[in-house]
Amino acid sequence: MSNRQRIYRTHALILRRRDYSDADRILTVFTPGLGKLELIAKGVRKTTSRKAGHLELFTHASLLVAQARTWDIITEAVTVESFRHLREDLDHISRAGYICELLDAFTEAEDENQPLWDLALLALRVLDGAADYDPQLLLRWFELHLLSLTGFQPELFHCLGCGEALEPVTNFLSLQEGGVYCPRCGQSRPDCEAVPPDVLKILRHLQRQPWAEVQRLKVRPSLLRQVENILYRYLLTVLERQLRSVEFLRRLQQSRPAPPPAPQASHG
């Protein structure tokens, strides 16, 4: 606690919340300078509370917080960004929930990570905007950059075995080892699976490019599903548990009629 004053101000993203006592709420928030925090908002469930509207899920708020023994107390909250437009779309709400669940799962208290804060805000701002982009591509890009910023970046450019640069052929992915083996090193490994060259190409592009470059990509849905499948299983391997919001996203997708087939554009 030595890095905080008795009363401190911080920006925060509201990741999760649970009711406590008669009118209070415990909030899990992610901050740029203090990592993940659990804070208490006293009386926030009363109809007269002025703070309630500023402490909704996914809100970017400016908080004034007082140190206390169990949970630090939110004494003042002001909305910086409400992401109002994404809240009008059930798909975007579920995607924002997924982003926040990943942040919650991959961050710790007192663990400053300004680049991760910037990444999360960018992803939510994209969801909140009206630009022409593929939201599935956004989530895959977010996953890979979150993995990089939290120390779990998969090795996609050099063979885990011999260290040689990977060629554009069918290579071999190991989720447990967190990377890819060349055909010579990976073929005989029981923990590896074949990864087609075009799937690896997309994974590599998403991992090393900023969103401004990635958003223009046109990827065949079948390829994007393969990328999603690999990243989802890798996230589960790292976390060693299921992600609740993924099941909700999948149920949403399954409940909708299939879209017309997309033109077979290349991914560049």
From TrEMBL:
SUPFAM superfamilies (UniProt xref): ArfGap/RecO-like zinc finger, Nucleic acid-binding proteins
Short name of one Pfam family: RecO_N
Keywords for the protein's UniProt record, in alphabetical order: DNA damage, DNA recombination, DNA repair
DNA replication/recombination mediator RecO N-terminal domain boundaries: 7-83
Function (record text): Involved in DNA repair and RecF pathway recombination.
The family this protein is said to belong to: Belongs to the RecO family.
Protein known as: DNA repair protein RecO
Organism per entry: Litorilinea aerophila
Native organism taxonomy: Bacteria, Bacillati, Chloroflexota, Caldilineae, Caldilineales
Gene: recO
